[in-house]
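Section: Multi-chain targets

For targets with more than one molecule, the full set of components is provided together so that the structure can be written out for the assembly as a whole rather than chain by chain. Components appear in the order listed by the source. The example entry contains two components.
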Amino acid sequence: MRLAAIPLAGAAILAVCALASLPWRQGLLRWSSTPFDRSLASSVAPGYALLSAAAGVIPPGSSVVARTEPSDPIQETYFFRFAVALLPGRTVLPTAFYGAPIAPKTWRDANYVVLIGRRPTAPPGRLLLETPDGTVWYRGKP
Amino acid sequence: MTGLAWLSTFLLLPLAGLPMLRHRSYGRFDFLSRAVLSGAAGASLVSFSMTVFALLGVRWQIPTIAATAALLAYGMGRLLPVKKANVAALSAESFGTIETIACGLVLLVVAAALIATVDGAAGSPDLLFFWGTKAQQFAAARTVDAGFLRETFHRYMHVPYPPLVTNLGALATMGAGRFPWRAAILTFPLLLAALALGLPGILRGSIGRPVAAAVSALVISAMAYLGMEADIAGNGDMPLLFFETLGMALILSPAASDPAGQLLAGVLFAGAASAKVEGLPFVVAAATLFLLLRRGASRGDIGRSALRLLGPTALALAAWFAFGATRRVFYGYSEYGPLLDFDPRQIAAVLRATLKALISAGHGLPWLVPLICLLVAGRWTRMAAIPLGVAVALTGFLFLSYLHRVENLALWISWSASRVFSPAAMLFALAIGARDERT
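Its structure, encoded as tokens over all components, is:
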């Protein structure tokens, strides 16, 4: 009995901790808009949301870059990876890799630009999609 | 609906493993444990079949993969000696208070893990960085796509990482038609639930139903809380923990004294070693300690046991490394440089950063609570040396890995330490139930 009670008490402590760590105040039973809304990686949630939406307007076979506005090579490194994941069948060109910017000649001819962040003052092409997380632009064929 | 179809494809896994688990020797486990063990063995064999298909240049098709894995499972069942059905371990004890409380706690923590996952509070970006991306690409290519892995800008995808998680993800993607990112993160609470169903039946053979239920509750609670704090939903950590926990529970149980139990543990260990890089040191340490602690076994017995425990892992990784070498994509686990090329001057920095990372995950409680329970229980049995020795070996391996990098060391550790040290919490909990007597 004692041997069972000890791990059981431990399990109870951890269960209380697990329950306490849930975001009770923000409303529990809510299907979040991205898998990262309330995780440690919540900063990438807008990029996930925009790139998921962009899949509907960027056709397979085209080329695309994922950028941030303003440009941030670390975030762009992540969003390049997200774009590879969320835009299968498209050629995703990197604008940054491991936090270092990549020369524009590598990616400037992309057909589509996904811009995470605010809408740029100078439009990089024809606006296809605008969400609270950013914009998607068609730049035409090079 | 795609998500449901994707998750439903995994129902093939217990079917693939069933021909092995139908063997009479496994009659010692109850129905739920046998079903979960079938799923785990099936997953390991399906992944192995997919890797061999990729190595041989055979395109993946779900029916042929499932049939090959089931044939392998059947073949392994045929290799085992036919004994009397071992059902004695299933006692007629009634469902008591301890078990009722344990079940309640497990339900609570699995529900908490599910809510956290659905709520976007446990998702791992690694799902998009490489696990899911590779699975999606491999499903489209119907093989491990060497060209995709070889591309310069895809080298961040940890090309040599072992193939089980991506293979199984690709299998489900072929079944569903596309990769459903939101459903993929549900593998965390679902595998946790599967473990909660299967673990008590494995443990109860040696320690009785109440203690087995209590120890299982501690294991599941620690994993749930840690998973929620370290954001493991959708990455390779929960599959790794799933195989490691079942394999370790099996070698601590009376089932490990016969060839069937050892072979099953070997297949589960192959699953662990094929899930993540750190699965390999876990498996080697667990099998070595098990063999060292066997009493009264002849050299021949030890050799055969070693073959059953480590043979499946050797085959699984040999197939993977042969694929990498023949396609000139990778040569072994080469990402962190040569094994002995580490910088001992970083020891203090690694220790500091690791402690900080562990404390940041639930104040370190997922490790501290099982450890304190172990100390209070005061059961320093001989068999407890297996989980505790594996915890020490794994810790050593992880420290050594961290010492291989200088750039962004603290950042790397802050991202990974709470996840990669998570098996230690499970090992402390299982050590409480490790009993020396074997039936």
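DSSP finds three helices and seven strands in chain A.
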